[in-house]
Amino acid sequence: MSNKEKMKELLERFKNGEVDENEMMKSLTVREQMPQRPYFRMTRSKAVALYGVRRDPIVLYRQQWLRLSKAFSGGKNCAFNRFFFNEEKKKKVVKEDKSSEVDEVLGEEQMEELK
C-alpha cells in the first residue's frame, strides 16, 4: 500500500468518525526521502551544497570542495583509503602521537622528574 493510499484511507476513517483528530495526527508522519543519488546545488552565497548524504545539506565553498577532492584522488594510496583501511599504521600513529603530546606538555625537565 502506497503512502497516498494510506492517506486516503486515514481521511476516510476520520470522516466516518472512526479516528479522532489526535489519533490521526499521531499516525501522520511525513518523512523526507533521501534521493537515490546525491546531487549538488549552488546556494545564494555562491557556496556548493551537497544533498542526499544526510538530512541537512553539506555546504562548502568551491576551494573547500577542491581540497576535499584531493583527499579522494590517488586510488588505493589516497588519504581517504589510508585513513579508513590501514588499521596497523593508524594504531601506531595514535601511540606515537600520545607520547609526543606528553613530551610537549610536560617538557624535558619535568619528564626527567617523573623517571
**Gyration radius, in Å:** 27 Å
Largest sheet: 3 strands, antiparallel
Structural class by secondary-structure content = mainly alpha
Number of domains as seen in the coordinates: 2
Distance between the termini: 72 Å
Spans with pLDDT under 50 lasting ≥5 residues? 100-104
Could you describe the 3D structure shown?
This protein has two domains: 1-31; 34-114, no CATH class. It is built from six helices and three strands, in the order H-H-E-E-E-H-H-H-H. It has helices at 3-15, 21-27, 62-72, 79-85, 87-106, 108-114; strands spanning 39-42, 48-51, 58-60. It has a three-stranded antiparallel beta sheet.
Main features:
57% helix; mainly alpha; 2 domains; 115 residues
Tell me briefly what this model is.
This protein has 115 residues and is mainly alpha-helical.
Please outline the helices and strands.
Layout (H helix, E strand, L loop, with lengths): L2 H13 L5 H7 L11 E4 L5 E4 L6 E3 L1 H11 L6 H7 L1 H20 L1 H7 L1
Antiparallel strand pairs: 1-2, 2-3
